[in-house]
Design goal:
The chain has 330 residues and is of the alpha/beta class. The protein has 16 helices and 9 strands. Its cofactor is FMN.
C-alpha cells in the first residue's frame, strides 16, 4: 500500500486552466494539496518547447505532471524528464474524452486497451523513481459492467501502478462533447467505493462532482483521497481551509486580502520576465466570489488585464473594489 497522505486532497489537471500561474495561486491557499499540471502530450515535450511545458515555480511543490500519450518509449522518456525537472509524480491520462485526444490515441480511449496502458506504466516506472499514477473513468462507450472496470485496473496494477484516480463517470467517445462528458453521464460513486473494498492494496482517489470540503469528508470515509477541479477553480477560496479541515494543520492564509498581498510580488516578477498580466489574473477572478464588490473586481480585471502594457496596478485597482485599500508589492 503506498503512502496515501499525499493523495488525501488533490486539485485536478484542467486543460487550459491549471497552468503554473494557477498552481502558484492555489499553493498560496493550501500547502498540503497535491497539485496537478494540465495535460501535456509526449509530442509537445519531445518536439516542442520543453522548458515552456515543464517549467514551474519551486513554491508549487508538491506537483504532479500529467502526461498524454500511448507510446511506452515516449512516455518513459517524458517521465524521466519529469524527474529531472523536479516533479513529485507523473500521471498518465486515461480519462480525457476529447476528439483531439482520441485522434492521438490517448486519453479515455486507452481504457479499451489495458494491456497497452500496462506497458506504458511499466516503461514509465522503469525510467524514473517517481510514483507513476493513472487517472481514468469508470468506463467508456459500451463498457457497462463493474467487471470491465476491474479488467482495466488489474493489468495496470500488476505493471506497478499503485494509485488510481477515478473520475466516477463513464465517457462517451462519440456523441458527447468534453463538457457534456463532465455533466451528462451519471456519477457512480458506489463503483469507486467498491474498488477500494475489492482492492485495498491500492490507493483509490475519487474525482467528479465534489463541490465542498464537507462532501470530501463523506468520500474520505471510504476512499484514500479526493480530487477537485472546477469547484476549486471557480471558487479558489475553498482551498483556504483544506489544510486545517483535512490535514489538521494550520491554514497558510487567514484572508483573501493576504492572498492578494502575497500574489502581488509574484505578478511583478512575472511581468518583468515577460509574462502578460492576464495570463496570471484570469485565475484570480473567483477569489472574492459571493462578497461585496466581487463583480466589480472581476469586471475591472477582465476589461483591463489583457490590454497592451497592463501592469500590476490593474490588480491593485481591482482589489480596491473588495477592500477599500490598496496593497503594495512586498
Amino acid at each position: 500500500m503506498p503512502d496515501i497522505t499525499p493523495y488525501r486532497f488533490c486539485t485536478a489537471p484542467l486543460m487550459d486552466w491549471s497552468d503554473r500561474h494557477c498552481r502558484y495561486l492555489w499553493r498560496l491557499l493550501s500547502k498540503r494539496a497535491r497539485l496537478y499540471t494540465e495535460m501535456v502530450t509526449t509530442g509537445a515535450l519531445i518536439h516542442g518547447d520543453r522548458e515552456r511545458f515543464l517549467r514551474f515555480d519551486p513554491a508549487e511543490a508538491p506537483v504532479a505532471l500529467q502526461l498524454g500519450g500511448s507510446d511506452p518509449a515516449e512516455l518513459a522518456r517524458c517521465a524521466h524528464w519529469a524527474e529531472q525537472w523536479g516533479y513529485n509524480e507523473v500521471n498518465l491520462n486515461c480519462g480525457c474524452p476529447s476528439d483531439r485526444v482520441q485522434s492521438g490515441m490517448f486519453g479515455a480511449c486507452l481504457m479499451a486497451r489495458p494491456k497497452l496502458v500496462a506497458e506504458c506504466v511499466r516503461a514509465m516506472i522503469e525510467s524514473c523513481a517517481l510514483p507513476v499514477t493513472v487517472k481514468h473513468r469508470i468506463g467508456i462507450d459500451e463498457m457497462e459492467s463493474y467487471q470491465q472496470l476491474l479488467d482495466f485496473i488489474g493489468p495496470v496494477a500488476e505493471a506497478g501502478c499503485k494509485v488510481f484516480i477515478v473520475h466516477a463517470r463513464k465517457a462517451w467517445l462519440q456523441g458527447l462533447s468534453p463538457k457534456q462528458n463532465r455533466e451528462i453521464p451519471p456519477l457512480n460513486y458506489p463503483w469507486v467505493y467498491q474498488l477500494k473494498a475489492d482492492l485495498p492494496q491500492l490507493a483509490i482517489v475519487l474525482n467528479g462532482g465534489i463541490n465542498s470540503l464537507q462532501e470530501c469528508d463523506t468520500h474520505l470515509g471510504q476512499l484514500d483521497g479526493v480530487m477537485l477541479g472546477r469547484a476549486a477553480y471557480q471558487n479558489p477560496w475553498l482551498l483556504a481551509d483544506v489544510d486545517r479541515h483535512l490535514f489538521g494543520a494550520t491554514n497558510p492564509v487567514a484572508s483573501r486580502d493576504e492572498v492578494i498581498a502575497q500574489l502581488l510580488p509574484y505578478v511583478v516578477a512575472e511581468l518583468a520576465a515577460g509574462t502578460q498580466l492576464h495570463h496570471i489574473t484570469r485565475h484570480v477572478l473567483g477569489l472574492y466570489q459571493g462578497l461585496p464588490g466581487a463583480r466589480q473586481f472581476r469586471r475591472h480585471i477582465s476589461e483591463n488585464a489583457h490590454r497592451t502594457g497592463a501592469g500590476v496596478e490593474v490588480l491593485e485597482q481591482a482589489y480596491r473594489f473588495v477592500s477599500g485599500a490598496a496593497v503594495q508589492p512586498a
